[in-house]
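Researcher: We're teaching a course module on how sequence relates to structure. For the next exercise, students receive a sequence and then see the predicted structure as tokens, so they can try to spot secondary structure elements on their own. Here is the exercise chain.
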Amino acid sequence: MQMSVYDVNGKLVQQIDLPDDIFSANINVGLMHQAYIRQAANRRRGSHSALTRREVSRTGKKMYRQKGTGNARHGDRGAPIFVGGGRAHPPKPRDYTIKMPQKMSRAAIRSALSALVRDNQLVLVDDLTRVEAKTRAVAKVLQNVAGSENALVILPGSEKGSNVYRAARNLPEVTVLNAQYLNIRDLLNHEKVIIPLSALDVIYGIWGKKES
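Model: And here is the predicted structure for the students to work with:
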């Protein structure tokens, strides 16, 4: 399939062919949802913890005598019904990790990229290396090429040394990402995805079909 490539001023500079196996793949919404849930779950630390009635530091002395007070019979201030008592069925540290076969996770990325192309959310630019390391300059480029500052900018190498990354840190809706770490969450959480031509080679090498 063919797509237009723009410069930082939003002017059309060329047309290129994109591989169908990455950008015209079958769009499987259920698979993308499964991959998104997996990524969100795997980010959880699972370190939550609360005390049971046996673990709270409370006296074991009986609260008051058994009979004659008119109160219900109680023998433990650590019971869940009392302030300062333990919790019934409290959360404990656990592992939320969800596994997914590599073939499925790769198919989910291809499905997301194809959906972005279908919905005109994917924008190709010729080069971003000459953009000034100024927030105003990056914001102007985003408006020129994408018409939105809610964007994911994919770079071919380490993003932290680039002018785009340094300048985009002040733009709350912009994420700058190394192409090697392309993931379903970032692809689906932005209105536009901006890819320079240099990053396409990285995407081809990683997400092109390798299995038969």
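Model: If you want an answer key for the exercise: Residues 102-118 form the longest helix (17 residues). The chain has two domains: 2-28+100-207, 45-95.
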